[in-house]
Design brief:
The protein has 165 residues and is of the alpha/beta class. The protein starts with a helix and ends in a 9-residue tail after the last strand.
Length: 165
C-alpha cells in the first residue's frame, strides 16, 4: 500500500513538473513574440538598405510577395549584414565551377530535406541565387512555405556583376 502511495506521489510530481514547463514555455513564447527582431534582420532596416542600394542600369525591384530584389540590392545587404546567408541552390558541379564569394551550397532539390539542419534560424536573412533565377525563385517560395521569414531572391549568377570565387 505504501509503495502505491509513493508511485502516485511521483506520478503527480511528474505531471506538475510538465504543467509548469508548459507554462514557462508559453510565457517565453509570448515574451519572444513581443520583441521586434525585424528591426535588425528584416523589415525596416533591410528595406532601408534595399531602398538606398544603387540600382543604376537595372530594373527597380522591390520586396513584395515574390521576394525578388536586384543584384545591387543584394550586394548592399551583404555589405550591411555580413551575417546574411548567401544561398546557392545550384548543383554541386555548378557551385564548384564558380560561386559568389561567401556563398553556401544547398541544392534546390535538397532544400526540403536539409534546410532545417543547414538553416536552423528561421529568422536569418537569407539571400538566394542560382544560375539564371528560375531555381532561386522556386527555392525562395519553398523556404517561405517552410516558415523562413527573411528570404529574398536576387536572381542568377549570370547577372551578378560583383566578386566571384
Amino acid at each position: 500500500m505504501f509503495a502505491k502511495v509513493i508511485v502516485a506521489i511521483k506520478l503527480l510530481l511528474c505531471v506538475a513538473a510538465l504543467v509548469a514547463l508548459y507554462f514557462v514555455f508559453q510565457f517565453a513564447r509570448g515574451w519572444l513574440s513581443d520583441l521586434d527582431f525585424s528591426r535588425f534582420f528584416g523589415g525596416t532596416m533591410v528595406q532601408e538598405v534595399i531602398d538606398t542600394a544603387n540600382t543604376e542600369g537595372e530594373d527597380d525591384m522591390v520586396i513584395g510577395t515574390d521576394r525578388r530584389i536586384s543584384a545591387s540590392q543584394a550586394h548592399a545587404l551583404m555589405e550591411r549584414y555580413p551575417q546574411a546567408i548567401v544561398l546557392d541552390v545550384r548543383s554541386e558541379t555548378e557551385f564548384a565551377q564558380e560561386r559568389i564569394r561567401g556563398a553556401r551550397l544547398l541544392p534546390g532539390d535538397e532544400i526540403y530535406y536539409r534546410a532545417h539542419y543547414e538553416l536552423p534560424d528561421y529568422n536569418a536573412l537569407i539571400l538566394v541565387y542560382c544560375r539564371s533565377g528560375v531555381r532561386s525563385q522556386a527555392a525562395v517560395q519553398l523556404l517561405v512555405s517552410m516558415g523562413y521569414t527573411q528570404v529574398y531572391d536576387f536572381g542568377g549568377i549570370i547577372s551578378w556583376p560583383y566578386a566571384r570565387e
